[in-house]
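Hi W.,

Here's what went into the run:
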Amino acid sequence: MWSGVTVNSCNGFLVPASDTGKKVGTYRAIVIGYGNSLWGDDGVGQVVAQALWSQRDGPGPYSGATIIWAEQLVPELAQDVSNASVAIFVDAACDGRPAGTVTAKGVDAQGVARSPGGANLVSVGCWEDLAPASLLALCADLYGRVPAAAFITVSVDPPTFGAGLSAPVVAAVPAAVAAAWSAIGACGAPSTLGEGGAASFAQPSVPSSPSRSHA
Amino acid sequence: MSEIVIEPVTRIEGHARITVFLDDTGDVRDAHFHVTQFRGFERIAQGRPVHEMPSLMARICGICPVSHLVASAKACDEILGVSIPPVAARLRRIMNLAQIVQSHALSFFHLSSPDLLLGFDYDPASRNIVGVAARAPELARDGIALRKFGQEIIEGLGGKRVHPAWVVPGGVSRPLAAEQRDAILATVPDARQRAVGTLDWFKANIASWAEEASVFGSFPSLYMGLVHESGNAAYSDGELRVIDGEGRVLLDRANPRPYWEYIGEAVEPWSYLKSTYFKSLGYPAGMYRVGPLARLNVVDQLGTPRADHELYEYRGRLGRYPSSSFQYHWARLIEVVHCIDMIEDLLSEPDILGEDVRARAAINSREGVGVSEAPRGTLFHHYRVDENGTVQWVNLVIATGHNNLAMNRSVLQVARHYIRGGSVREGALNRVEAVIRAYDPCLSCSTHAVGQMPLQIDVVGSDGQLVQRISRSSE
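Here's what came out:
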C-alpha cells in the first residue's frame, strides 16, 4: 500500500477520497489514447482519442475533457494524469480475442508492486511501453494523487507495419469511443463497468478528423 | 574461447548488442559493441526535394529531432546560398538548447538515475524510473519537470514536441510571439532550481560511484566540439576544436564545413555504426570523444556565470581534462544548467520578437554542409543536389559514430574489471551496459525509456557449446 496517498473505490475504479461525491460534470477528465500509428492496428488508441477530441467541445457532461493521443505512455504524463479526477486509457490489445472486441475495466494501480521482482511495467498492448497501472503508480509516488482510472482496449490481431486500421478494428472505434465516455461517467452514475469486467456499448457515429495532437 | 552476448542493451535509445570474448581462463580477451539496426536515411533521402530535408531528417530520431532539424536546415541554407536573419538564428538556438535540456533529462533521470540512485546491483525488475519514483520522488519529479520544460519550449516554438516542422531552410517558419516568450521565461526559475538541485545531489554522492568512475571508459583520448571564437561553448554555430588528453590543441578555429579533411570514417563488419577517427592520427589511434564530456574539455569556459561556476568546481575536483566517461553524467547536468541560462538570455534579447525570420532563395549551390551540437555530440549533415534541388547524395556523421571507438574501448575496460573466470553476475552485466548509457548513444528514433527489456547473456565455450545462460524476459 502507498503511504500518504488516499484512494477510494468507486464502481471498481480508484479515486482520490477528496473527489468522491462530485458530480460527473465537474470531474477533470483526461483521456489518453496511445499506440504506434505506423504499426497498423496498434494505433487504434490514437484514432479513438482523435474521435473523442472532436466531441469534447459539444454539449454534455464531459465538455472540457483533456484528450491526448500519443505513441506511448511516458512518465511526463504523470503530472497531468495526477491532476485529473478521472483518467481513461485507450490502447490496442493482443489478447487473443476477436479483432474489434472492446473491453473496459478498472485499473488497479496498487497492483504495481515495486518490490524486487514485482514490477509490471509492460502494457497488455502489442508493444513494450509503460502500462497504465505503472503510470498511476508514478502519480501516487510523485504527486500523492491517483485519479479514478479505466482502461479501454480494442482487441487486434498481431499488427504489421503500415498506417491505417483493419476493417474490424475501424468498426470498433465507435464502441470504444462510447466506452470511454461511459467510463468517465462511471463514478457519477451506476455502470456495468467493474474491476476486470467487460461491457458492451452503443455505437455512435464517428466524428470528423481532429486537429490536435500531443506527441 | 568463450563469449558472452548481451542483447539487447537496455535503457538506451535504439537497439544494440554487446559481445564479450573470453580467453581459456574465462577472463575477458576482447569486447564489441554492435549496433544491430539499419536505418538507411542517407539512401532514403535521395531523390527528395531539398526543401523537404529538415522535416525528413528529423524523422531519424524521436529524442533529438531538433538537432537534425538544425543541422539539416543549415546544410539547406548553404544550398540556397543565404545568410538567415539573426533573429531566426537565435530562435533556432533556443530550440536546440531546449532539445538538449529535455534529452539530457531523459538520459540522466529516466535511463541512468536508476543505476545511480538504486545501485548497479539492485534488482533489475525495479531498477527503472518507477523504482526511482518510489525511492526518491523528488528526483523523479525533477526529471519529469525538466523534460517537460524542454519539450514545452519546443512545442511552443514549433507546434509539436516531437518532429516540429518549424525550422526550415532559410530560417524558421514564424516568429516568436510575446506571450510565448513570457510563458517560457516564467518556467525558467523552476527549471533552474531543479537542475541545480540535481547537480548538488550528484556532487554530494559522487564518492559512492568511485569504483565505476575509475573503470567506466577511463582513459585518455582526443576530444572534439564546437566553440565560439571567444572560447565559449557553441551549440548551433561555432568552429571545430580538437584537443588531446593533456589539452594540447590539435585543431582550432577550424571551419567545420570540410569535415572530411579532419575526420575519417571506418566500417567494421560487426556493426552498422560507422567509426569515425581523427585523420591525422589514423585508425584507430585517432579515437576521440564528443558530447558533454568532450565539450566541457574543449571549451575555455561555457559562457554563463552559474554554469562557469559549476565548470570551475568540476575541473577543480576532476582535473582540467577529465577522462572518465562516467563523468558524462556530471558534464550533462552542468550543460542542463548552462542551456537553461542561455535560453533565458536569448529570450531576453530585445529583438527576439522580430518578424524577419526567413530568407527565401532558389537553388544557388549544389552542395551544403550543416553542423551543430546535438545532445550527444557534434552532428554533420552533408547534401549534394542537382540543378532542380533534388537530393543526389547524403552523408550523415552523428555523435554516436564519433564515440563508437571510445564506447568499444569502454566496454572492454568495464568487462575486464567486472568479469573474471567466466562467471557473470547480473550487476556486472549491468555495468557493461551502464558504460554505454553514460555516452547516451542515440541509435535511432526507437526508444526504450521505460520498462524491463529482455536481456540474455550466453557464455559459449571454445567448442561452441553453451556453457552458461543468464536471461531476463519482459514477461
